[in-house]
Amino acid sequence: MKEKIAEMKHVLLQLINSYQFFGIDHEDPHTYLYTFYELSGTVGIIGTDKEALFSRLFPFSLIINAMAWL
Questions:
Q1: Cα pseudo-dihedral 32, 36, 38, 40, rounded to 10
Q2: I want to staple 23 with a disulfide (CB 3.0 to 4.6 A). Which of 6, 18, 48, 66 is the partner?
Q3: How far apart are CA 4 and CA 6, in angstroms?
Q4: Dihedral sign from CA coordinates of 17, 40, 2, 59
């Protein structure tokens, strides 16, 4: 069971890292957040609160200017 959870976490982090927000002027943060919630909601971890999961994953989805902002 722990191996399956570890695999799901790894897949979820890869998914989030594949669609990152840079904080560049032409990026739409609302569209980004919508897509972030859609992507991170596709692979859930049993027994985990979705909002807590989103909060823990969000920093991994930011890069460059957006990470500095956070």
A1: 170
A2: 66
A3: 5
A4: positive
